[in-house]
Write a structure and sequence with these properties.
- The protein is α+β, with helices and mostly antiparallel strands.
- It has a single domain, classed as Immunoglobulin-like, CATH 2.60.40.
- Helix content is 15%, strand content 52%.
- The chain is built from one helix and nine strands.
- The strands form two sheets. It has a five-stranded mixed sheet with strand order 2-9-8-4-5, with no helix packed on it. A four-stranded antiparallel sheet has the order 1-3-7-6, with no helix packed on it.
- Strand 8 and strand 9 form a beta hairpin.
- The longest helix has 20 residues.
- The chain is globular, with a radius of gyration of 20 Å.
- The protein starts with a helix and ends with a strand.
Length: 130
C-alpha cells in the first residue's frame, strides 16, 4: 500500500513537471507582419514568430519548409516559389514571391526552434490586392 502511494506521488510530480517545464510546438505562433500586400512579382511576405506565453519574438528559428498557394480560394494548385529575404526586425522571417492574382494566399511554414524537440508549424493568410 505504501509503495503504491509513493509511486502515485512520483507519477503526479513527474506529470506536473513535464507540463510546466517543457514548452511544446503549440507554444509558438506565426503572425503576418502585414496581412495585406499588393499583388505582383517581387512581393515580400513576412511573418513574426512569437512565443505565446511571453509574447517575445523567436529570433533563432531555422525555417525548414515553406509553401505559398491560393488554397483559401480553392486554388491550391496555384503556388509560387519563395526566396528567403533578410529581415531587420528580430523574430521576423521574410520571403520574396510572386503573387500573380489578387485574392487570399496561404503561407505554410515550418521551423525548428532551439531547445524545442517538435517542429513549429504555422499557416498564415495574406490578401493580395490589385
Amino acid at each position: 500500500m505504501k509503495r503504491k502511494l509513493i509511486l502515485a506521488g512520483a507519477t503526479a510530480i513527474a506529470m506536473s513537471l513535464s507540463g510546466a517545464a517543457f514548452p511544446g510546438a503549440n507554444d509558438y505562433v506565426f503572425e503576418p507582419v502585414n496581412a495585406e500586400v499588393k499583388r505582383g512579382d517581387g512581393v515580400i511576405v513576412a511573418v513574426r514568430l512569437k512565443h505565446k506565453a511571453s509574447g517575445k519574438p523567436v529570433t533563432d528559428a531555422v525555417i525548414i519548409q515553406t509553401r505559398i498557394d491560393m488554397a483559401p480560394d480553392n486554388m491550391a494548385d496555384m503556388a509560387s516559389p519563395l526566396t528567403p529575404e533578410p529581415s531587420k526586425e528580430p523574430g521576423v522571417y521574410a520571403f520574396k514571391t510572386e503573387l500573380s492574382m489578387a485574392g487570399r494566399w496561404l503561407l505554410s511554414i515550418a521551423a525548428k526552434v532551439q531547445g524545442e524537440p517538435e517542429t513549429v508549424v504555422g499557416k498564415v493568410i495574406f490578401r493580395a490586392t490589385r
